[in-house]
Amino acid sequence: MIEIKDLHKSYKMGSNSLHVLKGLNFSIAEGELVAIMGSSGSGKSTLLNILGMLDEADSGSYTLDGVPIKNLNETKAAKYRNKFLGFIFQSFNLINYKSAMENVALPLYYQKVPRKEREEKALKYLEQVGLKEWATHLPNELSGGQKQRVAIARAMAAEPKVLLADEPTGALDSKTSYEVMDLIQNINDEGNTILVVTHEEDIAHMCKRIVHLKDGVIVEDKKVEQVRAAQYVK
Amino acid sequence: MRFIFDRNTWQEIFGSISKNKMRTVITVVGVLWGIFIYIALSGAAKGMDNGFESMFETIARNSMFVWAQSTSMPNEGYKTGRQMQLKIDDAVMIENRIPEVQYIAPRNVRGFFGAPPANIGRKNKTGSYSLFGDYPAFTKIAPKKIYDGGRFINDEDIEQARKVAVIGERTQKELFDADENPIGGYFKIDNVYFQVIGVHKYEASGGFGGDGDIFIPFTTFKKLYNTGDNVGWFSIAAYDDADVVKVEENIKNLLKNIHHVHPDDDRAFGSFNLGEQFNKIVGFADGITFLSLIVGIATILAGVIGIGNILLISVKERTKELGVRRALGATPAEVRNQIILESVFLTVIAGIMGIILGALALAGINSMTQDIDFPYTNPTVPIPYVIGALVIMVVLGTLIGLIPAQRAVSIKPIDALREE
């Protein structure tokens, strides 16, 4: 599903150049649930941005679902993002003047899905994350966990190939974190490919595979026994 | 351009606008105020324009009066201070020699310029009124509205020096009973019987003349008061395309020539050039119209710049939202179009509201000035002005929307999302 080879990325900071990613190689198969771990500064967010086509690598190749991702202009990147990727952010990034349902329906709007169909689909995904009754509420009327579930529903609404989650539990307490991870695991069980960036051990162990980044290189890439989040959720 | 007609686009824009009410209201007020000022000002200017026009509609716009005074310079053996007298032959000369003159009406009067008014009587009613001796041409210069069934003096009245008279509304009221038809009725002017041939409607025209004025044929007047070939003054109308100032000068030069007056003697003949005054007022009204146009457009411009400014701030405020939209698959073009359309939509809505409010204000001013003596009639804004203003607003709204839109696009989604 995802294949990266010899990925390099450096940022220029004044006269200094900061080499963030130093030749990464890995691939992710369909249906995997992968945690990317690392302390801050390890390059994990940069990697996620490149995978999310929000940023471009300096060198190396990146193939997504058999499509080579390179030399993208903004318009093409936007189209690919819309078609291939669903984003889940640490700070939810819901649009605060849109209701939960409208937020979920937004990626479909950019897919030119007619309004009625858009709303039906949005409701379906909201139901899946257990927030159907909250469809008409604005984000500021929802709790942190609910917001993240709306964001997850939004990420899934466009039926992407890969879900990219950037510290999805970073802003949540551990109880709601487990609820969110439970949801992510359930979505993965249905066969969706998910990439989770995190620095929390317990969250990482709820994935099926952990890729450990340190100073821009992969120091460890192992499959783990998945800890089900459901057991913590009462 | 298909996105403009896409219902989804508008739903998205309407959502964004209606859910940010405070921002929308402040934005709209700027342009609304601008277009309101524009409509109110140009309408008021037009109203004043119309007011001046209606003030002058009772008299030909390029008309003038010429009368005799006394000389201030000796000439050809005549001494200074000679009293001048216009003669009926002068009118013929003027008409023949000066081609720009369209109509010339020699006039005499009792009741003005030192002459006592005429004594009028009918049965046991008496009164004194101004009495004019006129040619038919006079109505070409200063149209008189005659009530149904009546007429003004005609050529036969002049030729036969008929004893007929056109009376005013007030004269009619004072001499005749309310249910009596004055046409064909007889009354006495200075002990001579005259027959009424018409009743004229009085209209305030800024000049002298009133609702009691009586008009009789010039030739009859001459017999009645023994005025011979003397003329009180000439009413003259030049052709529409003539330069009235030039015509006035030519007429006076001709009169000086006929009456042996020194060419540089400016006191021998007096004149009042209504056309010149009229042109000045028209120029003044045009100036006001132009000024209101400039002020209005400048105000609209200020309003539209205000919209651009607020959108620019709101783009900064919405950086994250726009970043999210980009991450969810909005292309730069879609983001740009959304911002521009928001700008144009707000501008047009504000513009239409401003036009409506401006029209209401104009209607209000109109009804307030209805009954007072103020040159202000029918304040309207020509449709091309309104459409022009709307077009200007759409164009400016688009242009000004381009700035925040370009800014919105230039922010990379990754930077937008990183901003916490």
From TrEMBL, chain A:
Top-rank lineage group of the source organism: Bacteria
InterPro entries: AAA+_ATPase (IPR003593), ABC_transporter-like_ATP-bd (IPR003439), ABC_transporter-like_CS (IPR017871), MacB-like_ATP-bd (IPR017911), P-loop_NTPase (IPR027417)
Short name of one Pfam family: ABC_tran
Molecular functions per Gene Ontology: ATP binding
Protein family per UniProt: Belongs to the ABC transporter superfamily.
Keywords assigned by UniProt, alphabetized: ATP-binding, Nucleotide-binding, Translocase, Transport
UniProt name for this protein: ABC transport system ATP-binding protein
PROSITE patterns to which the protein is assigned, alphabetical: ABC_TRANSPORTER_1, ABC_TRANSPORTER_2
Boundaries of every ABC transporter domain copy: 2-233
UniProtKB/TrEMBL annotation, chain B:
Record domain ABC3 transporter permease C-terminal: where: 294-413
TM segment ranges: 21-41, 290-315, 344-365, 385-403
Compartments where found: Cell membrane
Membrane topology, from the record: Multi-pass membrane protein
InterPro entries tied to this protein: ABC3_permease_C (IPR003838), MacB_PCD (IPR025857), Macrolide_Exporter_MacB (IPR050250)
Occurrences of domain MacB-like periplasmic core (ranges): 24-253
Keyword annotations of the record: Cell membrane, Membrane, Transmembrane, Transmembrane helix
Coarse class of the protein's main subcellular location: membrane
Similarity annotation: Belongs to the ABC-4 integral membrane protein family.
Protein name: ABC transport system permease protein
Organism annotation: Zobellia uliginosa
